[in-house]
């Protein structure tokens, strides 16, 4: 069963927003055995939308459409869909009740543009929007399913989970797709490929292996497509075991999770804790940990110490160390990681101090110079790195590199 | 001048990664007057890639392709492009030197799969990859430009900035596109539309107004397309001024910047500073501030205080307050924001404590309960919010809401 996603809105095409909806929908659909054939982002333009719909229906059975359902003049999706299906508009009572309820809740008068949100193409089945005023719309037309949803992520997500997925399951007999991902740390894509070439060659045609590299990590993903779930799962598991045995300690997780989550899982099992001392990563590493549910079992917290004074007060870095060696130095990184261990009383700690850029670089400490320390249980490693000149990348690389160092420190014990 | 972006790779279609490359490329191209007609994500499948190329060339003059250039077997872009153009392969000396240099730098032996990365379609002009082993490729075929680049973001970004943009400028006479964005805070999309309806109606056909809503903020974006830059800029500025005068204090910035950046700009002008006390947002708010270059001029740092003990040690929250009222309470939020002001010696501070979920909720404090405090210069506001049950959304909403509260507190003075 194939689906396509069409996102409508100039804001994606001029790069003002990143399309995170499509990846989320793709994951949800894959989980119920629907493959995404193509994702297309098109402009708020009638002819272009019509063309995209016509092309998508040639390739797929299900077409998910997001965006362009707001009350303002640049939102033309609904009108275009009515033209595409050749139908007129009707007022939907449930949608009108919903928009009325929302405006009453916030004590706002209902404007005519809001009332018009209850007007829907005559051939659609309305999907109630729990989190907003624009209704979703489900169309069954010439054997294809079209679903139009708002582009606001939490409105779309709730609608997909509560309504679209159940209706798709009820409409189609869905095949089985199984993915199994192994997270490797510290080896490049081509070296991995060389080490597992014979296993890759032995895969049957309905199981594919993909390499997904990302800053110091490579995910190996086995994807299988078949009718019988039990047999396919057993085959995928067998190949995953072969890969795990071959690659040994560079496997950080045998599931598709982030490296920081893999680390927290290990620490939680052993009842150990973690704290942070962040300077140039400025809270990014803390956010990586705390985005995961249940992180409070392992993660105690940390200091985001941009200013010298906060390095001293929160992390007990000596004033002399900062003035003598500077904030970006082995000595400061060492005192930061030790200060975190001592002050926050965690089993492990990470400290990061560097020059993220674009300003602040000097001849001997150029932008991208980062000192990272990891410590715990009597062990400590402090290393210097020289990343590039892009701020966001320096922040991300520093964080990922620190995670790799902590993972190694923990695994070595 | 129209361009399309085609991203190749199953990892996008199964939702394993979010496509951030396209938005970045779209911004870069828009800035030099090239509009993106469509962004398509397609699978690592020969026929599908060929179809996507054929469709894109019908609509656009420039086709940017990313992904599928790695050394492993699932990477088929290069072979497919050679088939598309009907040419064979040649070894490119510059690309071979580059891959050899990189492997020598890391003291790794050059594998056959890596050497093959220097094999390119005979009709291409190689774009040297400063940050990786896969060369970029520039094709000029039947009046259309095709550019194939690696999908790894920093490899692609460097290539676009250093080589693709200059070559596009040299190849085409580019028209003018001007965008002007106003950031509004605290009013819904439909109310904004009602208040500025007459201004919107008076726009000429070559200037469009878009509403871009996002959790408590709406960006108003004027986009103009013309041949004469000076005239268009004057017109856009005139309409922007009309909008700004009409909307008054709900305008947080007259440029396309994030709310936290608008706040930092104000504080920097007045020589004031900011610190944070984050619990449930776990470093996310600190990251929002510190992702911006120059944030250290305003942002001193903050505490990420997940554990009770860290709320006490870093923020001087009284132990009795935590045990009597709990971590998620008006009393704790108040002591957190006051503790941040006092301990970190900043002009303003923000404190956030809540239950991000999915666990940790109780009957009287369900998941999504968040207390936010903002304070500075003798003023303080502490408010309770009840968000939803999704962790990531609760984190984002808490942060954005806190920014809105601080913006109001600062603007009120």
TrEMBL record, chains A, B:
InterPro entries reported in the protein's UniProt record: CinA, CinA-like_C, CinA_C, CinA_KH, Competence-induced_CinA, MoaB/Mog-like_dom_sf, MoaB/Mog_dom
Residues covered by the MoaB/Mog domain: 4-171
One Pfam family cited in the UniProt record for this chain: MoCF_biosynth
Family (UniProt): Belongs to the CinA family.
HAMAP family found in the cross-reference section: CinA_B
Protein name: CinA-like protein
